[in-house]
Amino acid sequence: MNAAASPVVAIVTGAGSGIGRAVALALAQRRVTVLAVGRRAAPLHETAAAAGANVLPIACDVADPAGRTTLARLAQDAGGVRYVVHAAGLHRLEPLLAITRDNWRTLMHTNVEARLFLTLELLPVYDSGARVLFVGSNSASRARVSATAYCVSQAASTMLARCLTMELAARGVAVTSAIPSPARTPMVDQQMAADPALYPDALLYRRYREEGKLIAAAAVGKFFSWLLLDLPAGEFSSRDWNIAEGAHHPEWLVNTTLYDQAP
Ligand SMILES: NC(=O)c1ccc[n+]([C@@H]2O[C@H](COP(=O)([O-])OP(=O)(O)OC[C@H]3O[C@@H](n4cnc5c(N)ncnc54)[C@H](OP(=O)(O)O)[C@@H]3O)[C@@H](O)[C@H]2O)c1
């Protein structure tokens, strides 16, 4: 049998922009077939055009159970899935005293619940050697004014990844999370544009930009593709990862600029 006949398939959520797009491009470049997922079709088609090949746009909502079922069916049709990257996410600012249930629930559905139930829904279709990567966040451990729902959702997502690491190992599915922060993406651009009276950390991100310390999305793509494709199986899920740690840079930060150069 010709092993090359079966494509290696990845599901990358949030693939229409930012980190998800960068990971989709990095995986496609390494000949992985990427099911690129987001709610809006147009940005996904831009990702596919930028890749040139190996990226299939799938417009669907991961916060909707029907969307997750569609993804599991598509993965089955594709012959199984080897890699899953949970990059879909929402960030919304709301003062704590004006917090709305709608905002709270939307962020929990998208940033936590979707990751849990999509990971589980794919159980029948994982290839052997499957790896699931959660995009982690410093906001899981750093409280930020007007970002309570986001910070809580990130803390929950980090712990969810750890629980899944423990429970899915016996099923041959390796799970971990990796922090890409602070990466230059539409989400961070939106945070930098916020009124500091509402969101004081807008000033922090602006300072990172002025000092050239925002991480390039393409570097995150390369880091994540190294975690998924190159790291020995036991190491991938042995710990949480963080792009800011220099120890692993020599392994993957080759011919790549870590920091974003844009003004
Ligand atoms: N940038 C950073 O420094 C940073 C740091 C820590 C963690 N993160 C996390 O990294 C992830 C990616 O963020 P980003 O910075 O790349 O921001 P981004 O450009 O806003 O990307 C988020 C993506 O998620 C998609 N999305 C949102 N809700 C969705 C849903 N229900 N179903 C499917 N797709 C959905 C969006 O596309 P549609 O609107 O078309 O659906 C969008 O493409 C997020 O989880 C974020 O919390 C980012």
General description of the model:
The chain is of the alpha/beta class and 263 residues long. It has one domain: NAD(P)-binding Rossmann-like Domain (Rossmann fold), CATH 3.40.50. It has a 7-stranded parallel β-sheet, with helices on both faces. Helix 1 packs parallel to helix 2 and helix 1 crosses helix 8. The longest helix is centred in the middle third of the chain and has 21 residues. The chain is globular. NADP nicotinamide-adenine-dinucleotide phosphate (NAP) binds next to helix 1, strand 2 and helix 6.
What structural keywords apply?
binds NADP nicotinamide-adenine-dinucleotide phosphate; 263 residues; globular; Rossmann fold; 7-stranded parallel β-sheet; alpha/beta
Spatial strand order of the main sheet: 3-2-1-4-5-6-7
Number of strands: 7
SSE series: EHEHEHEHEHEHHHHEH
Report the CATH topology name: Rossmann fold
Structural class: alpha/beta
Please compute the radius of gyration using only Cα atoms: 18 Å
Helix fraction, binned, reads: 40-55%
- In the CATH hierarchy, what is the class? Alpha Beta
Name of the CATH architecture: 3-Layer(aba) Sandwich
CA distance, first residue to last residue:
52 Å
Name the overall outline: globular
Small molecules bound: NADP nicotinamide-adenine-dinucleotide phosphate
Superfamily at the CATH H level?
A: NAD(P)-binding Rossmann-like Domain
Mean pLDDT: 96
Low-confidence stretches: none
Count of DSSP-assigned helices = 10
Strand content: 15-25%
How many domains, as an integer?
1
